[in-house]
Amino acid sequence: MPNKTPITVAYGDGIGPEIMAATLRVLEAAGAQIAPEVIEVGEKVYLGGNTSGIASESWASLRRTKVFLKGPITTPQGGGYKSLNVTIRKTLGLFANVRPCVSYAPAVATLHPTMNLVIVRENEEDLYAGIEHRQTDEVFQCLKLITRPGCEKIVRHAFEYARSNGRKKVTCMTKDNIMKMTDGLFHKVFDEIKAEYPEIATEHQIIDIGTARLATQPERYDVIVTPNLYGDIISDVAAELTGSVGLAPSANIGEHVSMFEAIHGSAPDIAGQGTANPSGLLLSAVMMLVHIRQSDVATTVHNAWLRAIEDGFVTGDLKPTVDGRVLGTEAFAAAVIERLGQEPRQFRPVHYADAPQPRATAKPLYTRAKPAAKRIVGVDVFVHAADMSADFLAGRLATLTHQPKPAGFGLQMITNRGVKVWPGGFSETFCTDHWRCRFMGVDGDGKPRTVNHIDIVHLLENLVSDGLDFIKTEHLCEFDGEPGFALGQGQ
Amino acid sequence: MPNKTPITVAYGDGIGPEIMAATLRVLEAAGAQIAPEVIEVGEKVYLGGNTSGIASESWASLRRTKVFLKGPITTPQGGGYKSLNVTIRKTLGLFANVRPCVSYAPAVATLHPTMNLVIVRENEEDLYAGIEHRQTDEVFQCLKLITRPGCEKIVRHAFEYARSNGRKKVTCMTKDNIMKMTDGLFHKVFDEIKAEYPEIATEHQIIDIGTARLATQPERYDVIVTPNLYGDIISDVAAELTGSVGLAPSANIGEHVSMFEAIHGSAPDIAGQGTANPSGLLLSAVMMLVHIRQSDVATTVHNAWLRAIEDGFVTGDLKPTVDGRVLGTEAFAAAVIERLGQEPRQFRPVHYADAPQPRATAKPLYTRAKPAAKRIVGVDVFVHAADMSADFLAGRLATLTHQPKPAGFGLQMITNRGVKVWPGGFSETFCTDHWRCRFMGVDGDGKPRTVNHIDIVHLLENLVSDGLDFIKTEHLCEFDGEPGFALGQGQ
């Protein structure tokens, strides 16, 4: 065994200290070569006046060890405290949330006794970038951002996970029939990268049908990769279907730092009673051991845990299948320790192998594409205007494309909540006070032309001169000749 | 009985003609006072060169009758054909998608025999506005728009539906712990409107937990109201849980026009065989009859259908509970017709009452709020820049706030995918080529000031003078003194 690997450990709040103590005891008994550095995060730190819930010396530990085993924490209600998980995840770039969801029937009652799947959720982008604006009296906006490197990172991680864990199929779920550009990019990157993993079966499902199938036939899934919001929803669905959220582990993987934690909360109502179930955290520690290349210890711990469950030992949150085998936290850990070196007989034993060093064997996680030839061809200007018809607005705007200064644009259409209302709108279309006005660059003969930034500035200046309340802009660009903007509904 | 009510009918594609004929036969036998105007939509219209799938004279019929009973249609693959449903829904303002999801065990096998819920899905806004832009080499964006009148319309419709259908509880599902402004508005409007319906119990759930609960305990829900995307997902989950998507009806309700259709597709593989199940369309027609105030006929048809199912009659898509009772489409319709006037004995009979004219009794569906005092306090400018550090970009921008022209702004922060990277960023944060630069209005002493549109134009002009590639803007406003923009993650 080499030197001990330093890891950062936070006991957390509520039941955290109990389940972390039990987990570390099992790891030690199994011979894990780890050197924990304990940091304090969560409730005490928040209430001590640090709204982020983590002190700067704790950041330093995380950035040094790059491995974080974290107990559940309590975020106090009110007071503007930020989610520590979101902060750590986004600041340290933990791009992949990996959640195995496995049934353990008959030990754990479930309608889906054979399910065994892993959800690989993108963890940094999508609507969770938190970029929101109120734009008019009536309209609020949130930006959904999907990026090519973000898609490449998560999709490649899903396939690498599948390969190194002996998984056979990766299912991609998006809503690209509606969001053709953003979710379309995710799907496209999936199709590009899957070609590098010919031994793994693949499929794509629209998220609505996919979630419905997952809810009724979880057995048919193996690995699922999906953007952030969908992953948030389906990982809760899958965990619930197993019959116990209390057993589910998770890994948050980054290029620099990774974090391992149970998916359950801090359960303050049963804290300090010695009854909590350490399984979710213990199985998260197993994922950590694989990550730090102590796969033999991970295998030993996981098989001993499976054997203990199979032998009917459970904590009080589960129904025992054998009389008298409900144990407290410490006794359950002891039952696992007693079985170190044994394998389960009904459940399938696990066998982790140290993954090859990714950088030595696989393509890079993502590549920076060569910049495309970008050409601005127009601009969407959003206008706040109440009590105005689309036709009236269009009349004003048509003049303002060349007055007071000729700006070189023509008004192509106006939409309201995405529906084209000019030219040729329907009176039945409901209109808010938020109008998207699409101006395309045109020359003196009305032919399309490339525009530049100063043309757009001039157009905005013209709108201001007439007192129009423009509230936002979106450039319309072509990338290598491909339009980088969607048509309006009805256009 | 008064004069016959004109309705627009489209037989649709695939199994559409068979199930529509069966449905109209049942309605006629039950004494429905309707005068169908038949229009052609779908495959033939698309392939005839109309990319919208509907001809202008058909629009005229819809706008005249305001009631549309629609068979399933086939959208040809490729060729840029637009979804007819999306076009009709958005152009005619069908804001509410109402989907009852009911189990009919033992006639239909399901793990959830007692579920009986209705999903009321917002149908016009959210990410489905279809406003997408590619902004840089790496980053694609979709706008999520949530509006106050949109929220009021759908929430009020859900409560009115609950009240007139004897439902006891309305559950609201959002993700307002992350999207505090957009989903926060939906939740806030729910809280405002629920106070007007004191006899109806209410609850709010975060969509991830809510979907997981729905998937495992659908029995606990009654009416669920939710924004468009979440509604799309959970209505498929709920339909699937009932055991047969083939029985589920839907209504798309607008202020002017409403559309009724089964949720299943056109099933071209079994078209023309006379085996298709007309139940989804028939139950949609029941919803239509209630809508056009022929509730007695709706009650008669629905109870006869329940009795037929209870008596063991099914079409070939379902497993019969009594031997030899698998019927074709027409024979199944005949079995329903034979039972007109009868009530089911195990299933609970339905009893529809004509709803009071909404306008006479309830508050208006939505109100236009008095405009707030709006004040611009800054602007987010998004910049496309590759191979540039946040610190370097910040240095350039800090100068450009007052050169060449003093524009009266100070650079407050830079984020990348929503994470603050300046000032005080972490090297571990992954940065794309898409930077959001927040400028706040400041006066000569560095104190906050109100800015106007021309100040923003000048700021953009300064950026252009330095060759910076700005790609979009978002004004930062206060409404009645409340900030209309979210902080950056880590700010």
General description of the model:
The structure is a homodimer of 491-residue chains. Chain A has 491 residues and is α/β, with parallel strands linked by helices. The first copy, chain A, is 32% helix and 23% strand. The first copy, chain A, contains 14 helices and 20 strands. Chain A has helices at residues 16-29, 43-47, 56-65, 84-91, 148-164, 182-194, 207-216, 228-241, 279-291, 295-310, 329-338, 358-361, 390-400, 453-465; strands at residues 5-10, 34-39, 67-70, 96-102, 116-122, 132-134, 139-147, 169-174, 201-206, 223-226, 249-253, 258-262, 314-315, 326-327, 374-384, 409-416, 419-422, 434-441, 470-479, 482-483. Chain A has a 10-stranded mixed β-sheet with strand order 2-1-3-12-11-4-5-10-8-9, sandwiched between helices. A 6-stranded antiparallel β-sheet of chain A has the order 17-16-18-15-19-20. In chain A, helix 1 (16-29) crosses helix 9, helix 5 (148-164) packs parallel to helix 6 (182-194) and helix 7 packs parallel to helix 8 (228-241). The longest helix of chain A has 17 residues, at 148-164. At the A-B interface, helix 4, strand 6, strand 7, helix 5 and helix 7 of A face helix 4, strand 6, strand 7, helix 5 and helix 7 of B.
Which SSEs are present, and which pair or pack?
Two copies of one chain form a homodimer.
Chain A: E1 5-10, H1 16-29, E2 34-39, H2 43-47, H3 56-65, E3 67-70, H4 84-91, E4 96-102, E5 116-122, E6 132-134, E7 139-147, H5 148-164, E8 169-174, H6 182-194, E9 201-206, H7 207-216, E10 223-226, H8 228-241, E11 249-253, E12 258-262, H9 279-291, H10 295-310, E13 314-315, E14 326-327, H11 329-338, H12 358-361, E15 374-384, H13 390-400, E16 409-416, E17 419-422, E18 434-441, H14 453-465, E19 470-479, E20 482-483
Parallel strand pairs in A: 1-2, 1-3, 3-12, 5-10, 8-9, 8-10, 13-14
Antiparallel strand pairs in A: 4-5, 4-11, 6-7, 11-12, 15-18, 15-19, 16-17, 16-18, 19-20
Helix pairs in contact in A: 1-9, 1-11, 5-6, 7-8, 9-10, 10-11
